Amino acid sequence: KLRFSGIILYFAQKSTKQIIMEFVRIIEGYDHLWAVRHPHKEYDELTLLFQQWNDASFLLDFFMENLDDLKSYFHIERISTAIEDTFEDAQTLEELILDFPYTENLDQLFKPLSQSDTRIQELSREKARNWDRKQHSSWLRIYAIRLEPNVYVVTGGAIKLTATMQEREHTTIELEKLNQCRNFFLANNVFDKDSFMDLNKEN
Predict the structure, then answer these.
(1) What is the DSSP string of 47-62?
(2) Could you tell me if 67 and 74 are in contact, meaning their C-beta atoms sit under 8 angstroms apart?
(3) Sheet arrangement for strand 33-37
(4) What is the pLDDT of residue 39?
(5) Mean pLDDT for each 10-residue chunk of the chain (203 residues)?
(6) What CA–CA distance (Å, rounded) separates 70 from 92?
(7) Rounded to whole angstroms, how far apart are CA atoms 65 and 190?
(8) I need a surface site. Which of 59, 80, 88, 111 has the fewest CB within 10 A?
């Protein structure tokens, strides 16, 4: 279901370590939604998320490994219930971020990651989820950098079962990816869609 076109490859030098970042346009013909794609991965971060969230084997392994969090924070005892809830939630979230007319109003889906991000005028870190989910709150997250109103670059996502991202390794990694992308933009003078597109032209 994911639609994408256009791959842009960047190199950034940080001390002796070379950082490589690719950005993929998610919906052909539109410049409002992009995603990072790491060179060693076949798919971009947004595509990978929905593949994982629709993969029963992946979800079984994840919830078995994080069963204590599932019970403690969401009071769900059965892994089969968690998998079914994830399937349902992922379908809704995919529609909200990719389907028209929802995708044209991404500011309604994404919200600042933290209180500090609410005060940032440029390149704020954002999170998206199904905010209207019934029964229990959604544990699915999509993380992105906001370039300007309704223009986002997705850096990754996670199944977040704990109160903060720092509590578990897999969400801590997603926080680091967010920060790395934002720092990359700052280093390359990207602060809105126009400067992002200008950087694309240069490369």
Answers:
(1) HHHHHHHT-HHHHHHH
(2) no
(3) 5-14, 17-25, 33-37, 151-159, 140-148, 124-128, 110-112
(4) 83
(5) 48 51 92 92 95 98 98 97 98 96 94 91 95 94 97 98 97 97 93 90 62
(6) 21
(7) 39
(8) 80
